[in-house]
Amino acid sequence: MMLDIDVRAFNRSAWDRLVLAGNRWTVPVTPSEIELARRGQFSVHLTPSTPVPADWFPPLEGLRVLGLASAGGQQGPLLAAAGARVVILDNSPGQLAQDRLVAKREGLELRTEEGDMRDLSIFGEGTFDLIFHPCSNCFVPEIVPVWQECARVLAPGGLLLAGFVNPIAFSPDRELEAQGVVQLRYPVPYSDLAHQDEPSIRTLREAGEPLQFGHTLEDQIGGQLRAGFCLTELFEDGWPDSGEPLHRLMNCFVATRALKLRPKGRGCAPAA
Ligand SMILES: C[S@@+](CC[C@H](N)C(=O)[O-])C[C@H]1O[C@@H](n2cnc3c(N)ncnc32)[C@H](O)[C@@H]1O
Is 201 exposed, middle or buried (0-12, 13-18, 19+ CB in 10 A)? Predict the structure, then answer.
């Protein structure tokens, strides 16, 4: 049975609490990192361990960048310091406040918008040259609309840099995992709403943890292709110090670089 919960509200409150708890993905960058970024030396992540290769980026000066579900005072301020014109859209006011805090501290121009990654209707067609979308689509139940919205708001020839979680990461039995044993229990695709019961969700809420969803690779990769993107790069990444035994056995994160094609384009010819 599918639990009827407002996922966006649940996860907004969870991420606001994760900010207060000092979760790794909410800690703002330092003044020295910003100083280096101003000189073109920056390291940003779509996935937990491996930085995005520098050659995935076009020249950043004046580039119109959307940080999609990317708040936390991390990637947005670094890309702004490196010369990009950055807008960050995120569901958590607490996370967005971290971006504004760094922007004010460092005198950076950066716009923040509270919103849902599945609905970018506040932006017109072709508003951005690059979207930076770190691992975060595990916090929404459906991702095909995310890729479609990305394609709409990117200018022809624009780039979508995205991170996502291999859905196998959501399959292990949680109690056995705590004992160091990996045993697959939940199906792919995975949904906290469909595969957990009310007491488990209550425990998540009390712990300030967000609801999560494990999407098929067809939705992750095929979803980008069907939205009109051409994949130009992909790497897998690990998180060996996460404490979860599966992450000691395989790399469960994926980063992709995708180019927006011509309208209704086929093949990998860049948009005109
Ligand atoms: C893992 S963090 C990503 C940003 C972080 N700075 C990083 O480096 O990974 C996940 C982000 O997704 C955001 N988020 C969750 N659900 C969202 C939604 N429906 N729409 C937009 N953002 C969402 C959270 O508020 C959080 O800031």
Answer: middle
